[in-house]
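Example record used in the benchmark description.
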Amino acid sequence: MRLPYGISNFLKLVEEGYYFVDRTNYIEELENEPEPYIFFLRPRRFGKSLMISILHHYYGLEHKTNFSKLFGKYYIGNHPTAKANSYYILKFEFSRIDTITPESTKHSFRINVLSGIYDFETYYGYAHKDYGQNDEPANILKRFFSEHFSKKIYLLIDEYDHFANEILSFRFEFFAEIVSRTGFVRKFYETIKAATAEGIVDRLFVTGVTPITLDSLTSGFNIAANLSLKKKYNAMMGFTEREVKEILDTVCPESEDKNKVILDMRAWYNGYLFNIKGHERVYNPDMVLYFCKELMRESAYPDNIIDFNIASDYGKIRKLFDLKNGEQNYQVLDMLIQENRLNGQITEQFSFEKPFSRDDFISLLFYMGFITLQTEMLGEKKFQIPNFVLKGLYLQFFIELVQIQSGLCFETVDVRKFLIALAQDNNPKPFLNLIENTLKRLSNRDFVQFNEKYIKALFVAFVSLVNLYYVKSEMEIDRKYPDLMLMYRPPFFPNYQFVFELKYLKLSESEKLKDVTSAAINQIEKYLKTDEIKALKNLKAYVIVFVGTEVMVLNEVLKR
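Model output (structure tokens):
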């Protein structure tokens, strides 16, 4: 069985026998919605382009003769709707926009519009017109809509905001200009609205990552619906755990370790929730398919639990934190690194005519998949980092900031050498020296909010650079919460696993050292008596007490 990693063409997927997680029941759900103009947002690489392709093949009249071949095995093939294969499909795809300059952005947007129109004319036998290569995108679309079509149009727009996300992350003012009332993007979508009012465009399905231009697109367009946060559609994109288990049954049917594999995948790739009442959290589908592809090919876990291409997409996190109100944004980062929690509200439509708030920034992180819903209390949402992979990306970013702040130069290879001394030789001193040197190089200003959680964040961030261990912070074990645990992460199995109890004292509190150390030893001895920790093989336990920037206590606690 072939896994469709990176495949977003539904026809190719069916014809070449790729594994397919059937989502076609949602076609029926979407068609039954009272609003014919629908917007749906999900993080990058979450299956949006494949859904656009499925809708294209289902509703496009040019695919009518292939209906049974394409959909016969799936839900919608046995429950076809009234509008199947009854539309002309006009499709725009905006993921390939050159945003280097304002001129290149507009030119590239225009070319993508012309490309969608050209494909339409080719599919349905209309003569290719000269729309004016340098005209406004809105004018090009108006001339196209002035044609008399024999069928109504289903308009599909994929990644409607991709170029805007690129611009937003590093040129806020330019972004605000192009979506303003006189901007070319706003006018383009106003033309689409006019075409819906005239009955030319009968249905609309738009995908994207964030709602940053929805205010422009839907202004005065009150029959449109943003279904992104609706409970019914929580799992329309992404994989449920049942579906991941079914993929594993295909990938490794004889394996006796599937329960272990699913536990690991749950920690790495699961955790996304788009409605607080959603039935279950979903997995990032691209990450799952990458992992399963490598597992099937090598019969072993990949060394890197996240594909390079996905990691580079999520690398945009760096740019986001420099967005407007940068200092406020970095306070959000501190909360995520130290607490893995945030409180706030979700902004459903952005207006850049008002100040960009903390909730707006938190909402951008949510829509882009960098955080997800945890719980809700009295109407206030609580957010968390969804999984281990995203936590690792935040920690890498955190370490980069620490390097800049401290002026300390080190390479990941150095960190790996220090961590291997810990992992293989039970020698924590080189690694702790790295932490000490980092702390000493930080300015006095950085120590205003300095506390035990900051040291823990440094500790976790450095360990996460190397990917030898799962790093568990304050994991609940029998109602006890060890500060840090380093646990085996397949495919790596070093000589030792670790549990650490970390304490921090200010220089002015050094007289408390003896009492704090004694209390920490008592805590760790209690951890070592729990069944879960006793079951860990090759476990080493340490109490580490920092006074100011130095480790004053490094005490190995032996099992009794």
